[in-house]
Amino acid sequence: MTLYEKLKYLTDAKTYLKEGICFEILDEQVMGMTDNASAELLQKERKKLFNQIFEQDNKRA
Question: Which of 54, 10, 7 is nearest to 26 (CA)?
Fold first, then answer.
């Protein structure tokens, strides 16, 4: 069971979602992406984040 699936099964799960977001929208995104595509997106976004952190550190130095 994934963390997303565990979240969905909580009795008050909707309270943890941002306003305007519902499980139907999230389910469409989950079903529309393969595991490999999801992993690639995660790596891409992680790299972007670390590049931003690195750039900020260089500006401060």
Answer: 7
The end-to-end CA distance of the chain, in Å, is: 44
DSSP reduced 3-state for 40: helix
The pTM of the whole model exceeds 0.70? no
Distance between CA atoms of 53 and 51, rounded to whole angstroms?
Answer: 5
Q: Are 13 and 7 in contact (CB under 8 A)?
A: yes
Q: Which tens digits make up the pLDDT trace of 14-23?
A: 999 999 999 9
Contact 14, 23 (CB under 8 A): yes
| pLDDT higher than threshold 90 for residue 34 | no
